[in-house]
Amino acid sequence: MRIGVISDLHATVAALAAVLRDLDDRSVDQIVCLGDVVDMGPSPNEVIDLISARGIPCISGNHDRLSEHPGHPLLAEIEAWTLDRLSPQNLAWLAALPAERMFDAGGVRLLCVHGSPHADTDQVTEHTSWPQLEAWWGERQFDVMVCGHTHVQLARRAGSHTIVNVGSVAQPFERPFDGKPPRVLPACDYAIVEGSAAGASVELRRIPLPWEAFVSELRSAAFPQPDTWLAQWRRTGQGAA
């Protein structure tokens, strides 16, 4: 069984649509979303509507609560802008999302979380110690744990457990957030987990972000300070958007 795992869509239809097309080309059996469906992007209602129309099971990310009240003025403006635009139905949809899900992927137990099983703001990176990971998942029984939140992909294995950070559909980072302004890559990241009687295999996927479609989506939405937002994407050899 092949499961496509997406995360950190951040209200960007151009990125989500590109990833869904790529997943359709790879004939996955199921798609699962690990949260951060909205915030920090121009199309919150449209992304929720597309996820719902495709029947994609989803969990909640920290941004989906829309209650972070970030100290950065632009991020605070975007959070308020997002809340103002979301329909009552989609606000209710976000509020009803569970914190985690478990799936059977061809006999492989797939644990789906946003940050970690402990908290959706935990960062699972290449530097996270194995004792820390074990403390975060506690008594949960699984073969593969998939997460997002950091916007940086990884796959690690120890013993019978595989840990996968699928990265971000809309805003892959060059490095996990460390308090400094992130460098955002013009790409779309996700993962495919394949389970069988022989165990699990993981493919980390990266495709190009449809740049012109993304810029058009951002500008047509009256998104706050679009030029400041687009400046995070440092695109070699490209002029101003």
Please explain how this structure is put together:
The chain has a single domain (2-230), classed as Metallo-dependent phosphatases (Purple Acid Phosphatase, chain A, domain 2, 4-Layer Sandwich). It has 241 residues and is α/β, with parallel strands linked by helices. It is globular and about 50 Å long. It is built from 7 helices and 9 strands, in the order E-H-E-H-H-H-E-E-H-E-E-E-E-E-H-H. Helix 1 (13-25) links the parallel strand 1 and strand 2 (30-33). Strands 3-4-5-7-6 form a 5-stranded mixed sheet, with no helix packed on it. A 4-stranded mixed sheet has the order 2-1-8-9.
| Tally of discrete structural domains | 1
Q: Which H/E pattern describes the elements?
A: EHEHHHEEHEEEEEHH
Named CATH architecture: 4-Layer Sandwich
Task: From the alpha carbons, calculate the radius of gyration and give it in angstroms.
Answer: 17 Å
**CATH class category label:** Alpha Beta
Instruction: Specify the CATH homologous superfamily.
Output: Metallo-dependent phosphatases
Helix and strand content put the structural class at alpha/beta
Strand order in space, largest sheet? 3-4-5-7-6
- What do the pLDDT scores average to? 94
Report the sheet-strand fraction: 15-25%
Largest sheet: 5 strands, mixed
- Weakly predicted, low-confidence segments: 236-241
Taken from the alpha-carbon principal axes, the silhouette is: globular
Number of strands: 9
Assembly status = single chain
Give the helix proportion (percent range): 25-40%
Helix count from the secondary structure assignment? 7
- Taking the alpha carbons of the first and last residues, their distance comes to 41 Å
At CATH level 3, the topology is Purple Acid Phosphatase, chain A, domain 2
